[in-house]
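tool=predict chain=A
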Amino acid sequence: MSENHAAHTHGAGDHEEGASWMTAARMLQDASPITVPEGASAMTIEVEWEPGDPGTPPHRHSGPAFGYVIEGAVRFELEGEPERIVEAGGTFWEPGGDVIHYQDGNALTDARTRFVVTMMCAPGKPMLELVDEEELARRAHLRAPRPTA
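tool=predict ok
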């Protein structure tokens, strides 16, 4: 939250004492543009992957999703973007809709990884929809080049 926003939110009548709210918040992520489906619901979940767990198979969400890594490191890959590692204290987001989310697994082989994610869901759609092999093959040209080992 910006100082300007904080000032407008709390107004001029605040007392000097107990003003820790002005420095207590720190911006972790600012994503734009986002599109939230009309009538969307939101869900916040905590995910915990054991060491080396590959995570959820390729999937998509009907609306945007915003995540924060609590501990460990997430191997994160969206369609059209190179794979990256998001370490504890880092954030990630995805726009949802048609974009395939290829990876969200534990990037560590010797430690657990935990993250929190808030997902928006379009009415009547599942929060998460797995992508089948046929669609993955059809859209292979949209996936960023794979890292070479």
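The mean pLDDT is 86. DSSP finds three helices and nine strands in the chain.
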